[in-house]
Amino acid sequence: MRMMIILPFIGIIERETTMNVQKKISLKDRYRILTRGLDWETSYQPMGKVFPDVGFEGIKIRNWDDFNDPFRLTMDAYWRFQAEKERKLYAVLDSFSQNNGQTAITDGRYVNTLKLFLTGISPDEYMAHRGFAHVGRQIPNAGLRISAQMQALDELRHAQTQIHTIGQYNKHFSGLHSFRRMHDRVWYLSVPKSFFDDAVTAGPFEYMVAIGFSFEYVLTNLLFVPFMSGAAYNGDMATVTFGFSAQSDEARHMTLGLEAIKFILEQHEDNVPIVQHWIDKWFWRGYRVLTLVAMMMDFMLPRRIMSWKDAWDIYFNDAGGALFGDLARYGITLPKYVDVPAKEVNRLSTEAWSIFYQYTHAAAFHTWLPTDQEMDWLSASYGPDWDRLYRPRFLHWRQMEKEGHRYYNNALPQLCQVCQIPMAFTEPDDPTRVAFRDTVYRGERYHFCSDGCKNIFDHEPEKYVQAWLPVHQIFQGNCGGASLDQVLDWYGIEKGVDNMDYAGSPDERTWKEWEAMRGRVAG
Amino acid sequence: MPVKAIAPDYVGEVKDSVDRFHGNIVVYVNWVDHLMFCSALAFPLPPDMSFGSLLSDLLPQYYGLHPDWARIDWAQARWELDRQPFTPDLEKGLAANGVGHKSVLRFTTPGLTGIDGSCT
Question: What average pLDDT does chain A have?
Fold first, then answer.
């Protein structure tokens, strides 16, 4: 007998009842019921009108049924796993809060890595949610649709748990109060922001290759492992816990990205060059965003985990090499410009930290010069060239500080049209020369930091002529005014509190008070 | 194909066209071998500003922080404008010198290679 049951607040559900005890539905059946009709075909409208984004990228699919969901996860199982992880995470956060976990970190400087993460990465977790929701809406295959939707939920959960976790630090440290507004406005945050804006404004196939494959599979370890290990090495158990909480999702995301790209490549040989270009593009875009991670690892963690160079060797060269060996049978090769990161590896983090040191007055986190011990570590990690090219720079800046003339660059920097990072990268084969690349398109000049970024522009100039470059926007008068103070107000950066050096900051004061208290207790 | 878009004739809005800079042009200046200034400096400048004024009024405010600045022998300096060798006329304006919107000016100061020869 089929009956309708009306439940308050939930509405009407249909339920099969029999005279016998209700039979338990198998997992397989539950998945079938969950996804039934998700790959529906239209009757009175053409498919292209209902799913307009599937066709325009040029990807040819012979048979959508060839894609099989690698997880076949049902909704109740999904909720159960996630709820369990949430319970553990929030228990840790409660105990962190009750035990003043923020006092157990290695040094107050450490919190600046969290500022970078919360303003740069967490809002992009939310954008990843929107991107996967879009894929789920457009792709007419039940397995891809349901797994993209689950990934969309994961990404939303990641954004939320990161905000809640780092929110603990917001009670005690500066620079964490307006992360959402900063993400949309602050100059260096336009780097991760434009990366995701680029991805979500692409079609669903490019998005899958960009985020599902290139980012999740090839580069995500280089983002999350350094941040989470950095947290573990520096006594931040709250952040470690959200890392663990996200990790099992990441394994699923990697599988989905790989299965999706294999499916696209197997469907038609014409797809191969299109996918290859996306791999080239998103490898390069992702690598440029990772500049911030390189800097975080080599300059910002009070207790270092490993150098950027070691991380690149382990997580890209070793792991990525094996992956591309796997994809060779489809005709996919290593990304274009893959040799450049190896050439830049000894200087990337130093070039990046030098940018932030000289523009500290416009940053939402604190900067400092490396100590002698830290410079020794850098020179041991990066060899004699580091001592020759960069130690004199930091020693000179230290001298300027001592003489009361701390160095600030008061002019604005030229930015790359694609990655939007200040054009501070040097020639791959000459670390003493800034690299300049340019294109003239429809009578207008555009500048790039690298062949990788120029290549991306030249493929789709109509997309990148629209780049919202923070420096040009300030010149045009769209960022609150012409003075630094006005721009900082518009950014949501509190002057003298959120910006400038760690030395003399309210953060440092707080940290020293805690240390003094510990000293009193111990003494 | 200039872009992959749903609309076949999609055209992007140029966000940095010269008409948006209130009569100025954007000019980038790079001092070769001096990476203490991480990137080329960007300035919105009136196109009729004289090249001499750029050199004597504007740049010293920024590059003057570097100990090499005071040692420059300008008679020896070599200039490039948009990757071409270039000899500026100090009396003439930027536009009359061929400096356009989003032009890159690079100059090399022979014998000066930054702090302890590190190109910083």
Answer: 93
